[in-house]
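so my prof wants the structure for this chain in the tokens format not the other one, which i didnt know existed until like an hour ago. anyway here's the sequence
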Amino acid sequence: MYEAIDRYVFSLIERSSPERTAWNIEKVRQGVPTNWNYIDGCMISALLAMADILGDERYFDFSRRFIDAFVGEDGTVRTFNPSKHTLDDINEGRVLFALYDRTGDGKYRRAAGTLKRALDDQPRTFEGSFWHKQIYPNQVWLDGIYMAMPFLALYEGHFGSGDYSDILRQVETVRDRMRDGATGLYYHGYDASRSAFWADPVTGLSRSFWLRSIGWFAVALADLIEFVPADAGRETLTAIFADLMDSAWRFHDPDTAMYWQVPDRPGEAGNYLESSGSAMLAYAMLKGARLGALDAVFAERGQQTFDGIVRHQLTFDDDGELNLGGICLVAGLGPEDNRRRDGTYEYYISEPVVKNDAKGVAPFVLCYTEVKRRQG
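here's what i got, hopefully its the right format
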């Protein structure tokens, strides 16, 4: 099956270009060309990991060509609009550091500076946390921690002063405001102003847990533990991470080791075992164990979840091609003119479920690279 996974990932490359990718289902459905966005950023990150683990230059060469279609020699990033103040658009920038390390090409450093300046101008809550987007004022989403903080940590390590305190403060604010004491899980969103229609007027929290948002946070923590030095807050990050992984495992499905779209309501009408969030938690567990941030048992737990995804969501079509199913296409909170996205259980189970979208494929591939590392 692993050879089939290799072929599956490479087949996605063969059907993709900087103008149109096989894995960005939102763009395909909209019929619009690819721009600088987090979905493609997740996939390019996964392809670079594949290049490292397999030693196959085709993955690196595709990734470089893809990013070069957007990054100018002067560090401009085509289609990137800093006035939108969206953390999602920072995520793709994390691949710039790997490209710079490998090639030494200064345009990648300059492009990273372009994105860093945008983060410097990002609006913040009164507590000092980045707004998720301009259209979501005063709102902190778990997704945003993944979109911005690993990039910020990589920038500090490569070109900054080595000050990781802002990252630590924002992660700690998420822990303090968004963690549920009863379950140890984290709510999808928090409105520091308590004024959003979906927010609890007392706590500012959204109403339900959403698996992929928890997955984004888990992956962010696993990556930050790798990027943040030991003397700059790694111990605090590790404690938050270990607590989350302990809590999340209590909600795994015993038959598949996967996790439910709304994780604390297994088997309820409309709920389903979701691939993207399951792969994210599996990746975080495997990587956390490899880095020594988690007990060794979590490597086995992550492996079980990966195997469960392979058994239950990776299927062959009539042409013998693999497809990864069970992926929630998208979910969010608001904005004000989209009150269907209200953070309820009913909302999260209503979003489309698709196959081969990078929000599921990328974490699955990242998880696969951790499985390969484990095998040696």
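also thought this was worth mentioning. The chain has a mean pLDDT of 97.
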